[in-house]
Known about the structure:
Elements: H1 2-6, H2 8-30, H3 53-64, E1 67-72, E2 75-80, H4 83-92, H5 104-109, H6 123-136, H7 139-144, H8 146-166, E3 170-171, H9 172-188, E4 197-198, E5 201-202, H10 203-215, H11 219-222, H12 234-258, H13 268-278, H14 287-302, H15 304-318, H16 320-334, H17 349-361, E6 371-372, E7 377-379, E8 382-384, E9 389-392, H18 394-398, H19 442-459, E10 460-464, E11 477-478, E12 484-485, E13 490-495
Parallel strand pairs: 2-9
Antiparallel strand pairs: 1-2, 3-13, 4-5, 6-9, 7-8, 10-13, 11-12
Helix pairs in contact: 8-9, 9-14, 9-15, 10-12, 15-17, 15-19, 16-17
Protoporphyrin IX containing FE (HEM) binds at residues 116-117, 129, 296-297, 300-301, 304-305, 308, 363-365, 368-369, 431-433, 437-441, 444-445.
Amino acid sequence: MIIIWQYWPALISAAFCCYFLHELLWIKKRRRLPPGPKGLPILGNLHQLGKNPHQDLCKLAKKHGPIMHMKFGTVPAIVVSSPEAAEKFLKTYDQVFASRPHHEGSWHLGYEQRNLTFSPYGPYWRKIRQLCNSHLLSNKIISSFESMRRAEVGLLVESLKRVASDGAAVDFSTDIRSLGANMSCLMIFGKKYLDKDFKDKRFGNVVRESLEISALINLGDYFPLVRVLDLQGFTRRFKKIAKVYDDLLEKIIDDHVNSQDQNETKDFVDILMDIMESGKSEFDFDRRHVKAILLDMLIASMDSTMATVEWTLSELIRHPQTMKKLQKEIEDKVGNARILEESDLEGLVYLDMVVKESMRLHPVATLGLPHESLEDCIVDGFHLEKRTRLIINIWAIGRDPCVWTDPESFIPERFLGSSVDLQGHDFKLIPFGFGRRSCPGLQLALTVMRFVLAQLVHCFDWKLADNVEPSHLDMSETFGIVTSRAKSLKVVPIYRLQK
Length: 499
Ligand code: HEM
């Protein structure tokens, strides 16, 4: 008895060791995780994300594999970097990963995530997705804005013609963004609000500021327990921006309600207010929902499409033979005595190939939007717990050397006779995502992008300003919700149609 008493502490320690060892082995076996880089205590892998996280994650995936486990603060994450892995998560396990995580920016700017982009998966998301698909982003509504698009692109062409007659250079990046902002505002609000100052702030700058901080790493999103401390001051900034937006949206809605104008073309405010007032929505739908959706449409559409036009023009300038071939295709159809119309775009197969190739190399939503799992699941024998974040590295998939030959080169001809499209039917090209949470603005984006690009290439030849050689054009990227050119595109337009 005394002997046992003497060894009591050692026995307890041994029992604890056995227990923990057993637990450790058992948990490891039960919770087999995908391979991934070792993280630091507390931070996890956050320190491995630099200024261009899509590039950092692509490098890490080359070492650890296309399904990579990481931890961002306390949040477990899976990073997917190959077409097969993307198909598994976006098709086979689509429903499990159909939710979105808490996002502090979207919480404040999206009326507590009542918007479509960050709304958690469930009946509310299903209803607003259906509403947006059928009432805002349908082919019929897209066509109803055709004349607005013609007029706005016409204004840009006229202003570029004036520059061309002086042989001067333009900052194409600024011009094209302003075209995007104006077209989005006209479609959504019926007016070009972004040109105007609003309570001492230029509205366009407010939108850009919100996009910029939304793309930064917010510790509150990765350490929920310290969210209330707002260590980086982001929540304060989001609340301030949300107030500017809210005041403006209230004013826009009031203007619409009080207006006697019976415009033939209804903008998004008209459409959503009609739905709200008719009570046809079949779910809670008040001004907060209207404002959340309006803001969502503005932020999603404003820069994304035009950043793609900017990347495509950059590639065409770097590849003069491709530019000539595209100009010839358009000229064969339209001639060079008149401006092209949207109806001329049908059957421009080389234009489609150029757009695909540009979106392969420069998908502006490089990491898509984060998904979150709704339940525990086992994928490829890996145990992934509920609330695991899913990041699809769209940028890495577009450059995957296992599925693309010469992946870093711009070669539209690779799509000749190929069935790969932009709808995601083949997971090697998914710039708009795939599945339940894929981009509902795809048709609108493609219509605008093809029209603007075809018009600019048909009307002008393009030279780089300051005698920069095409092969020396800086193609570096700035990561964001929309990943765009790091350096402005400065060009000299040369008008090429008959006067
Ligand atoms: C070049 C243009 C665009 C690209 C490359 C793009 C790409 C994407 C991607 C990758 C996603 C995330 C998919 C996912 O989570 O799996 C997305 C979501 C979304 N996009 Fe786009 N997009 C573009 C333009 C637009 C436009 C013009 C609109 C609307 C006016 C729009 C509205 C949305 C919305 C609302 C979502 C969230 C859908 C949901 O969560 O259910 N996008 N987009």
